[in-house]
Amino acid sequence: MGRYVARRLLQMIPVFIGSTLLIFCMMYALPGDPVAALYGEKKPDPAQILAIKHQLGLDLPLWHQYWNYLTGLFQGDFGTQIATQRPVADVIAQAFPVTIRLTLFAFVFTVVVGVLLGLVSGLFADKAFDRIVLVFTLLLISVPSFVLGYLFQYLFAFQLDWLTPTVQDSRDPGQLLLPAIVLAALSLAYVTRLTRTSVAENLRADYIRTAVAKGLPRRRVVGVHLLRNSLIPVVTFLGTDIGALMAGAVVTEGIFNVHGVGNTIFEALNRREGSTVVGIATLIVIVYLVASLLVDLLYAVLDPRIRYD
Amino acid sequence: MTETLNVPASASMEPQPAPPGADAKPAKGRSLWSDAWHDLRRNPLFLISAVLIVVLLAMVAFPGWFTSASPTVGDLTHHYQGKPNYGHFFAEDWFGYDTQGRSVWARMVHGARASVLVGVLVTLFVTILGGLVGLVAGYFGGWLDSVLSRITDIFQGIPFLLGAMVVLTTFTKSNLWVVIAALLFLGWTQIARVARGSVITVKQSDYVQAAKSLGASTVRIMFRHIVPNALAPVVVVATTALGGYIAAEATLSYLGIGLAAPTVSWGVDVSNGKDALRTAPHILISPAVMVSLTVLAFIMLGDAVRNALDPKSR
Amino acid sequence: MRGAKTMKWSTLAAAVALAATACGGSGGDGDSASGKPAGYVSMFNGEPQHPLLPSNTNEKFGGYVIDALFTGLVGYDAKGGLIDMNAASVDTKDNKTWTVKLRKGWKFHDGTDVTAESYVKAWNWMANVKNKQANSYWFDDIEGYKDVHPEKGEPKKDEMSGLKVVDDHTFTIELSKPVPYFEYKLGYKTFTPLPESFYKDPKGFGQKPVGNGPYRFQKWTHNKLIQVEAVSGYKGSNKAKNKGIQFKNYSNLESAYQDALSGNLDLVDGVGPKDLPKRKADFGDRALDVPYAGTQSIVPVFYSKPFKDVDPKVIQGLSMAIDRKTITKTVLQGTRIPSKGFTPPQVKGYQKLDTDVLSYNPKKAKQYIKEGGGIPGNKIWIQYNADGGHKEWVTAVCNSITKATGVTCVGDSKPDFQTDLQARQNNKVKGMYRGGWLADYPLNVNFMQDLYKTGASTNYGRFSDKKVDELFEKGDHAGSLDASVKDYQKAEKELLKKMPAIPLWDYAANIVHGEDIDGVKVGFDGNVLVTDITVK
């Protein structure tokens, strides 16, 4: 087990290199030029563009730029933003905590509400409650998050005046509630559907019948045997979801004026700030790696037959 | 009917499902199919979804049957004045006019083609690609699993916006296929993970172990025993994601990199409609309802077919 | 089962570790600045894209702050006329040598005097290619610019020979050739003085600037707000009527609008499309539309298939096929004013053109296009950036053209401005592109020279016409400002015949503000004059 974790941690190195390289190449492939972008719609100055590019090493071949970036990274240097001239590490350090709070909020909401709804509708599969939950989750899925965001803002902040329309202080949980729910909506639908199907399916499994036949109390059957065995696909999904929540908040963060990772990536992309985008994306890859390790470990907890070798 | 069946259930129909335990005899396989069909015909869920899907496919193939109004040419005099007339069935102003003075109903009908194609094709490709990766990784484990899983990690780390922009700007023309490619590029990892997790669980089952010890070939074990039993979560995520992809196409349009002008799609309309959210919400709600109905139809169909085919359910 | 139990513990530990790292970061957020001091005005803004230096700020968000912190030699009045600010006078006899006399007693916010040296030394630094300032090209009229800013390689000198300090409050500017409208250019925000403290730490200065303007810099919490405080001893005519400004950082107009509506924000100088139709209902007479010197056009590129060697008559026809009045009223919600020429009314040199080329006339449009020989392929494209909210009107313009003339017109969406710009710079536009121009200084010259002169760097349509170039040239060599403006007016009439662009409409600033403030006015550049705002 210890060796397994150690091996997985070692695997992070090639993944780290691979993902930075891939995202580096993707940034390179985008049309547009971060230095020319400094001039906006105004007259660009070719002499100055060349000078700035030379200073930043942007005139080097791609592999060389990547090498410079990587060696910098290993010395703890995430690079400097071209336009604002702020260290990328600062920018990231400012954005990540906000997003992490938002993500955790959304994540807890997804897990608690999603599993609960899924469990109940799975237990009563094909009954009225199940149908209502199905339609509800469908609405969440088929309405894009920007529509949901504007709708919730309008409804809860203006018509009902329960919550603030935008986030003024990201440390106030009350203000984060609305964006967190919008962010969680899509995952909530998946988790509910997955739990429901798993539960409904496992209800018919032999071991449940055995457990019921043995005369175990219903609460124990559901809580221990049924839920535990139904959670593998849900846990798998949640593992990928936590990364997606962190990275995919561009739209939601924009609507609620949250200055987190999504917004930062959006702005950096617009200005073609390569080092910022690569830095953030790399951190998100690390989140994915840790999450998928946790998920793999959880498999063994949920299903003792699964072993690592 | 087979036409409607093929689309959503293709993933579950390809491999012949087998009951756990001993190998299914060929004769029993046939009766499984006819049993399933027998079940389905009596299932109201299935009937509703089948009707919905037939209507949708008719819209995709023959939009002219439903409306004669043009989805692209508008008249600005209708701008914001075009409130819906819900009594005027199939008329130009049934669902009012949009901000450009175009018939919303015409756009709902003509938008079906692009949206349904995006939804169905992306789901199909994502399920095949992601399912295969997950199957191989989960079944073989070891270094193959490590490599495939880490590649999945890398792809998941790509920011949605960056990935979509790179794909869509690389293929300068933003047509339907490029949007499908972009969503496939960004979407396959989710299914791959779910499939892998599911395969890992099924792999431990007694019947798989039994088949192994009986000396069944790898391919046989994979497709006879693993796939049918590991399919449930994959189908759930895939059918649920179908709506997600249609919505994702809308998000791409919202971010300005989705389908371009002459193409009509629900996603484009939902994203256009947000500007009129406070004054003329029908512009947004009408295409959004179409998306919901489509997803509902496919999920119900997926559920019904899976239940009918699931050997454990009888 | 023992194995499974240890597994449980390690999983839990790992989960705790993940959560701990997640929460550990919350200290460095810098999020606590939501309070507003009494008498201050809070307004919508965004994160400046560059450090706060006058010579490096060329976008709106940073521009607001720079304008509040610095005052240059001259400014403009509401009609585009010049007024002296820090300068007591700016004189010239030959349009080549300009003598600047400064007002006495002006101080930087660190207490040091504003002298001729403060200007000359600053301009030499700003123009120097080594310092890589985005606005350095503004100094290229000055004699010796090439020495400090060569097209290639290191600068030969540190100082421009054209700048000479006469005494503490007088300096002269010698240009490499006469520019009759140079004084107008002097109003641009890069022509400001810098205090001596700047040169010790230019990088630190960009985060904490010290200016000579109506406001003093207080704090900059990145991604959150920039706060400036009114200077009590300020000597300029634009002394602040409020106690200070909070420039709050918003990622979009919609969320700022929501905050203004709920009373958390005093002023937003833009309204998103979602709220435009409701702005009067929401804010009543606190929703203002103030026209300013910015124009929108569609620009044919003359290397493209549809417009190569095109007869200008065809473009005139296309122009007449656009129903500007209806589109501005409906799709654009009355936020734009149909163009009456190539220059907007807020600038000096605006003239009423006697023409029907800019009015909707489908019949004539069709006829003109036919007479001009039509368009190859009968299809045109309008390229635009999807991140700027242009899609709706491009669609409407295309619809109008197609309906009136039968020419197929399709919007060509580029994901963002960078992609759009790159296509323009590399001559990859398929037919037309969306052109927008905001005045740098309120003079008709500014709306023509950079856009339509042969080889001008922002002339992405690659328009080239001998007669137009001649008239521009004549204007640039005119004996006086007025003569120069007149020559450019002639050029504008010529442009109407050659059609290097199809003017569509002029901008208006859409402003909504709260009940607590008053006196909201807008400058020629569409920016709110923050010093004039009063707090109730």
TrEMBL record, chain A:
InterPro entries in the record: BPD_transp_1_N, MetI-like, MetI-like_sf
Protein topology in the membrane: Multi-pass membrane protein
SUPFAM superfamilies hit by this protein: MetI-like (SSF161098)
Broad class of the protein's primary localization: membrane
Transmembrane segments: 12-30, 104-125, 132-156, 176-194, 234-256, 276-302
Compartmental location: Cell membrane
A Pfam family per the record: BPD_transp_1
Residue span, ABC transmembrane type-1 domain: 96-299
Alphabetical keyword list: Cell membrane, Membrane, Transmembrane, Transmembrane helix, Transport
PANTHER family: DIPEPTIDE TRANSPORT SYSTEM PERMEASE PROTEIN DPPB-RELATED, DIPEPTIDE-TRANSPORT INTEGRAL MEMBRANE PROTEIN ABC TRANSPORTER DPPB-RELATED
Family: Belongs to the binding-protein-dependent transport system permease family.
Protein name: ABC transporter permease
UniProtKB/TrEMBL annotation, chain B:
One Pfam assignment: OppC_N
Top-level lineage group: Bacteria
Regions crossing the membrane: 45-66, 116-142, 230-248, 283-305
Domain ABC transmembrane type-1: 112-302
Region span, Disordered: 1-27
Name of this protein: ABC transporter permease
Membrane topology classification: Multi-pass membrane protein
Gene3D superfamilies, per database record: MetI-like
InterPro entries: BP-dependent_transpt_permease, MetI-like, MetI-like_sf, OppC_N
Record keywords: Cell membrane, Membrane, Transmembrane, Transmembrane helix, Transport
Record CDD domains: TM_PBP2
Family statement drawn from the similarity comment of this UniProt entry: Belongs to the binding-protein-dependent transport system permease family.
Annotated organism of origin: Streptomyces spirodelae
Location(s), subcellular: Cell membrane
UniProtKB/TrEMBL annotation, chain C:
Source taxon at top rank: Bacteria
Signal peptide per UniProt: 1-19
Annotated InterPro entries: Peptide/Ni-bd, SBP_5, SBP_5_dom
Residue stretches making up the Solute-binding protein family domain: 91-457
Sorted UniProt keywords: Signal
Name under which the protein is recorded: ABC transporter substrate-binding protein
Organism name: Streptomyces spirodelae
Biological classification of the source: Bacteria, Bacillati, Actinomycetota, Actinomycetes, Kitasatosporales
